[in-house]
């Protein structure tokens, strides 16, 4: 308990998700240590080593989880489900979390964010015990190039991120297995999106020989890659009879059997997604009423162009146009010496929002009559 208090008082981040994760992690690790290690001294030593590792990596782990969540918000900005904070908290809360496609993405992108940040930290020399991956340095790579330079040490990032992120799953049920699988898929996405960078050598830039190294992609590429995996996420059909009848060994057998047909890089889920149109705060769902959507912009992707249909129309809402005045500084001039004077300019932008249909309007009432007749 005192270890718990020490570490939670050290956490300076106000981010509820990340700190909740670390507290859970800490208690689960301390608990597992106390039950496996018999002698008190050995326990104290391992607790100390753990605390040291915890303090070394915890800021990176938190920054990494945050990176994952920001990418989630970007990827889902124009989807009905838009990675809301409320659900992030529920998703780690025992009993309440679901195993939908969306939570699958969330697990994958968080695990990826943590691995990515730890790996970046490592390449920047932030940690004493880790540096470039030079395991292949000097070896022949392909025609005209050899391995060299500083490859990002993804094995290090993978290793530490596993210890932190996977430790949150302490159950042995199908839900925990699904979460662990999706964490792993997230980490694989980091490896799958890595790129080879090369540098030319030889007489005056002749590039007769190149040295190459593997480098992390932008995290945006990882997000795009996982969004595609999300679109093709597979629903697992657990052998329910075997699970219901079975003891835990049987359970594990059924889980292992189910997973044997799934490729490690694919996202999996157990439940269908709820209707994200409708507000249900006890499930952490905000619904799409009041959400902004995009219309008429020149540079919109197909997905963005359809956002009003997806968020408003298909959810039984209408699109409301609002003119919004924004005031900003403009025509700034530098005055000798040393001030900058600006004017205030107002700009009117048009934005679109989903709103409830006017109840007394015609289409609604005719539909209502329809429903009565159908009954
Ligand atoms: C790792 O990088 C993140 C930002 O990318 C930073 O917030 C964190 O403090 C770094 N960790 C260390 C130990 O330097
Ligand atoms: C991963 O972690 C384990 C245990 O902490 C360690 O033995 C192993 O060498 C690590 N591997 C890498 C590549 O860092
Ligand atoms: C919210 O969802 C729960 C569980 O599905 C359901 O029992 C409840 O009726 C829903 N509440 C509203 C307001 O729709
Ligand atoms: C549209 O996109 C192109 C390239 O993607 C860019 O050059 C151009 O500035 C964009 N136009 C607007 C209005 O954003
Ligand atoms: C609904 O529509 C009617 C007539 O079209 C209008 O008089 C009324 O003000 C509208 N109500 C709202 C809340 O917009």
From TrEMBL:
Keyword Ion transport: no
Gene Ontology CC: extracellular space
Entries under Gene3D superfamilies matching the protein: 3.30.2460.20
Keywords annotated in UniProt: Developmental protein, Disulfide bond, Extracellular matrix, Glycoprotein, Lipoprotein, Membrane, Secreted, Signal, Transmembrane, Transmembrane helix, Wnt signaling pathway
Top-level taxon of the source organism: Eukaryota
SMART domains: WNT1
InterPro entries: Wnt, Wnt8, Wnt_C, Wnt_CS
A molecular-function term among this protein's GO annotations: cytokine activity
Compartment list: Secreted, Extracellular space, Extracellular matrix
Function: Ligand for members of the frizzled family of seven transmembrane receptors.
Family per similarity comment: Belongs to the Wnt family.
Protein name: Protein Wnt
Species of provenance: Pygocentrus nattereri
Organism placement in taxonomy: Eukaryota, Metazoa, Chordata, Craniata, Vertebrata
């Amino acid at each position: 308990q005192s270890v718990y208090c020490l570490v939670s008082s050290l956490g300076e981040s106000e981010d509820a998700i990340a700190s909740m994760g670390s507290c859970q992690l800490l208690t689960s690790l301390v608990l597992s240590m106390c039950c496996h290690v018999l002698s008190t001294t050995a326990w104290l030593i391992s607790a100390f080593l753990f605390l040291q590792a915890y303090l070394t990596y915890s800021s990176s782990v938190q920054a990494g989880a945050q990176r994952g969540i920001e990418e989630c918000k970007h990827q889902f900005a124009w989807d009905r489900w838009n990675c809301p904070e409320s659900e992030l908290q529920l998703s780690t809360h025992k009993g309440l979390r679901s195993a939908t496609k969306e939570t699958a993405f969330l697990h994958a992108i968080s695990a990826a964010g943590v691995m990515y940040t730890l790996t970046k930290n490592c390449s920047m020399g932030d940690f004493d015990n880790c540096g470039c991956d030079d395991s292949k340095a000097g070896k022949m790579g392909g025609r005209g190039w050899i391995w060299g330079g500083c490859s990002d040490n993804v094995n290090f990032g993978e290793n530490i991120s596993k210890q932190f992120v996977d430790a949150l799953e302490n159950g042995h049920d199908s839900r925990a297995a699904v979460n662990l699988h999706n964490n792993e898929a997230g980490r694989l996405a980091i490896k799958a999106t890595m790129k080879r960078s090369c540098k030319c050598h030889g007489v005056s830039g002749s590039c007769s020989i190149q040295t190459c190294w593997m480098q992390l992609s932008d995290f945006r590429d990882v997000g795009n890659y996982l969004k595609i995996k999300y679109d093709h996420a597979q629903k697992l059909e657990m052998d329910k009879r075997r699970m219901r009848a079975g003891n835990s060994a049987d359970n594990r057998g059924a889980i292992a059997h189910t997973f044997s047909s799934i490729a490690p890089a694919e996202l999996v889920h157990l439940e269908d997604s709820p209707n994200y149109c409708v507000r249900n705060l006890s499930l952490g769902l905000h619904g799409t009423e009041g959400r902004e959507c995009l219309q008429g912009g020149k540079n919109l992707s197909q997905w963005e162009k359809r956002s009003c249909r997806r968020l408003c129309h298909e959810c039984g809402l209408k699109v409301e146009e609002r003119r919004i005045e924004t005031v900003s500084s403009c025509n700034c001039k530098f005055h000798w010496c040393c001030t900058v004077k600006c004017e205030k300019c107002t700009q009117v932008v048009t934005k679109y929002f989903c709103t409830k249909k006017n109840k007394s309007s015609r289409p609604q009432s005719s539909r209502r009559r329809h429903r009565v007749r159908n009954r």
